[in-house]
């Protein structure tokens, strides 16, 4: 019995690493993790776990030694199937063994040691209860992760507070630093990338890397990279709950703010579009006094945000009919030409009527807004209009945000795998349509975190796919049901539709059907927590 209990506890610890990975992908938030656990893509009880149930019953309740041994064998066999499935399923984001994860693993081990000691020294009657508790914890190992998080929370709070204060001390050593805050439902990272590549030619600029758009992400950036010689910090600001942007503004105190767009993103947590508008608007509301707000006048939600008398407002638009707009934009575009290789347009400074022709390799109409907003900030900071084309012509796209490359000299891959949204997905299809090539193929699991709008928006996505794509590969039968309905209503041929079980299956199907000079769009690549299992 001693060895058997010890074995089960070791297996619980090994299984808990998978739970930690999912908890990490849910931003260490119990609420989000709990929602994932009870979500439609998650299955609490796997068929192979009947082996464990039978094994645990034999091990705990039968007095016969060989039946107990058989029970342990069935328990090990179940864990083998668990390991086999996890090994065969390639994780998109592996567990990042940070200091916090190490502390949680240590706490996991302590809890299990205490359980073992409690069982070892318990009276016979209590032993059976503890054996059942331990046996149940194997199937509910996520509870161990939750317990560890709760136990460690006071320590984690103290550690985080130390890091936050240290980052603020580092910023205080650079009082002349200009902080540019960028938020929006879509386009934050791409706008940050454009702005950085323009400004870094004339200024010493630091930007938050990748999607480091949380308070801890900003903290890590500042503590690791910020130097007294930096003149500008470009801070991407993400939000999933009301107050998130205010918290970031209170932390880094932006002088300049850009809201790229406001739309139905993260409605799973925001619940309503009104909450999204209010939260994104926190950037303008909490800019430093006499700061500058860059306003996308093509977005009605941004235009309706409260006005501050002490701010300087710069308006920009990608609407070529800007002359009839109210308010009249300060920066607008004319004579737009889009292709599968990039874009060209004329930038107009409306008050002075000065114009310059610009060319970019970035794809898609939505990238025009990212470029215009970045250019507008650069011009207001003193960059000359005459140098703009030289500065933007070689701007490279952010990886997985509508970048493209040729695969084995056979087909073109349009990679738009990072977190699709209603506007971005529509624009990606527009780019796919414009690309010169043979067949147009899409691989997508659809869009997520759209709350009550999810079905309608994904169904519309399916209707848009039907107009452009010669072959469609959907990832996940359940989560793509709205797209399937949109395709069916658009009379899309069933012979041109394949529903893959996961991304590996989708890529296998792609290898089977793809031909010379085809163009393949990967639109969204869901994190592991959205896999259908």
Structure description:
This protein has 533 residues and is of the alpha/beta class. The protein has helices spanning 2-25, 30-37, 49-61, 65-88, 99-121, 124-139, 142-172, 188-199, 215-225, 244-252, 267-270, 273-280, 282-285, 300-303, 366-380, 388-392, 422-434, 454-468, 481-489, 503-513; strands spanning 178-183, 205-207, 232-236, 256-259, 292-296, 312-316, 331-339, 342-349, 354-360, 403-407, 411-416, 440-444, 471-475, 497-500, 519-523. The chain starts with a helix and ends in a 10-residue tail after the last strand. Residues 527-533 have low confidence and may be disordered. The protein folds into 3 domains: 2-155, no CATH class; 173-392, 3-Layer(aba) Sandwich (UDP-N-acetylmuramoyl-L-alanine:D-glutamate ligase); 403-530, Protein-Tyrosine Phosphatase, Chain A. The strands form 3 sheets. A 6-stranded parallel sheet has the order 2-3-1-4-5-6, with helices on both faces. Strands 10-11-15-12-13-14 form a 6-stranded mixed sheet, with helices on both faces. Strands 7-8-9 form a 3-stranded antiparallel sheet. The chain has 20 helices and 15 strands. Keywords: ATP-binding, Ligase, Membrane, Nucleotide-binding, Transmembrane, Transmembrane helix. The chain crosses the membrane at residues 50-83, 104-123, 129-151. It comes from Fusibacter ferrireducens. This is UDP-N-acetylmuramoyl-tripeptide--D-alanyl-D-alanine ligase. One of its GO terms (molecular function) is ligase activity.
């Amino acid at each position: 019995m001693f060895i058997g209990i010890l074995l089960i506890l070791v297996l619980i610890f090994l299984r808990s690493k998978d739970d930690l990975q999912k908890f990490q992908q849910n931003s260490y938030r119990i609420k989000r993790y709990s929602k994932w656990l009870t979500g439609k893509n998650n299955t609490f009880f796997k068929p192979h776990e009947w082996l464990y149930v039978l094994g645990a019953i034999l091990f705990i309740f039968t007095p016969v030694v060989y039946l107990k041994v058989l029970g342990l064998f069935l328990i090990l066999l179940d864990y083998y199937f668990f390991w086999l499935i996890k090994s065969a399923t390639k994780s998109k984001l592996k567990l990042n063994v940070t200091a916090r994860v190490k502390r949680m693993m240590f706490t996991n081990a302590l809890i299990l040691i205490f359980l073992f000691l409690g069982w070892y020294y318990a009276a016979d009657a209590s032993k059976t209860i503890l054996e059942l508790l331990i046996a149940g914890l194997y199937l509910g190992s996520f509870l161990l992760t939750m317990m560890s998080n709760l136990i460690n929370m006071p320590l984690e709070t103290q550690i985080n507070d130390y890091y936050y204060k240290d980052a603020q001390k580092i910023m205080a050593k650079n009082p002349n630093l200009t902080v540019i805050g960028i938020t929006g439902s879509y386009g934050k990272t791409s706008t940050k990338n454009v702005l950085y590549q323009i400004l870094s030619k004339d200024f010493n600029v630091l930007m938050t890397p990748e999607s480091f758009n949380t308070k801890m992400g900003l903290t890590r950036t500042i503590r690791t990279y910020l130097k007294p010689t930096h003149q500008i910090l470009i801070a991407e600001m993400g939000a999933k709950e009301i107050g998130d942007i205010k918290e970031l503004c209170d932390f880094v105190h932006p002088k300049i703010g850009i809201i790229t767009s406001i739309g139905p993103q993260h409605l799973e947590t925001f619940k309503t579009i009104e909450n999204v508008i209010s939260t994104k608007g926190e950037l303008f509301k909490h800019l430093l006094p006499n700061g500058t707000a860059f306003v996308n006048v093509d977005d009605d939600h941004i235009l309706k945000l409260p006005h501050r008398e002490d701010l300087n407002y710069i308006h920009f638009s990608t609407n070529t009919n800007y002359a009839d707009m109210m308010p009249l934009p300060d920066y607008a575009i004319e004579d737009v030409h889009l292709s599968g290789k990039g874009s060209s347009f004329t930038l107009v400074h409306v008050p002075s009527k000065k114009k310059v022709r610009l060319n970019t390799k970035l794809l898609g109409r939505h990238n025009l807004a990212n470029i215009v907003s970045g250019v507008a900030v650069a011009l207001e900071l003193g960059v000359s209009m005459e140098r703009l084309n030289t500065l933007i012509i070689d701007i490279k796209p952010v990886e997985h945000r509508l970048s493209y490359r040729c695969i084995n000299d056979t087909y073109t891959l349009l990679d738009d795998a990072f977190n699709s949204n209603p506007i971005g997905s529509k624009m990606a299809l527009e780019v796919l349509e414009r690309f010169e090539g043979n067949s147009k193929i899409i691989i997508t699991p659809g869009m997520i975190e759209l709350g009550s709008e999810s079905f309608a928006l994904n169904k519309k996505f399916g209707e848009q796919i039907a107009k452009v794509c010669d072959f469609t590969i959907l990832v996940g039968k359940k989560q793509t049901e709205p797209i399937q309905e949109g395709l069916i209503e658009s009379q899309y041929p069933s012979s041109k539709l394949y529903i893959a079980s996961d991304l590996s299956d989708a890529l296998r199907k792609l290898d089977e059907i793809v031909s010379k000079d085809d163009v393949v769009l990967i639109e969204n690549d869901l994190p592991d927590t959205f896999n259908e299992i």
